[in-house]
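Standup notes
- DV: blocked on the single-chain target, sequence here:
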Amino acid sequence: MANTNTFDFDGSGFLVRGADGAIDQTATLAKVGEALVAFAALDANQSSDFAKAIDAVFDAHPGVRIPLPALANEAMKSLNVDVMNYQVISERVQTFVRNNSGDRETGRKYGMSKGKGGGVGRWSDIPVEKPATTPVAAATAPVAAPTVVPAAPASAPVETASAGETRRKQRAAS
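- DV (later): unblocked, structure below
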């Protein structure tokens, strides 16, 4: 998947030429820098909007893991995205989530997992799993030796009764 969060650069629109017709590098770089600052501000604003929309989805469904496409779709509703821009903005929302996902220890806001029970979850909604601890007394208690039943000698005949014989003996005993 191509990165949709790019800065398109067509150098011809930014070239500044001096009086002699040569490219004025300082003025050209200043013009490119202004465009880059404007793009960075737009990108930061858009990321903030994405974060708010995604948080709204998780606020409505706390503690739930949501498949990434469904999460993006729900976030798009609160962003009021135009149909003409839907695919591009959906990819940007998904990229935003991927870029802000990781293990809880990394400090990322979201966690992603695949398979059954997978999807995207907000770490602040998912409880921390504590490892099971055993009491010290139980861990140090002696273990009873297993009881050994002696086996019958190989030469001794083994008595077997059919199911009918067993029932007759039970009836006779009662």
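- Follow-up: Residues 11-125 form one domain.
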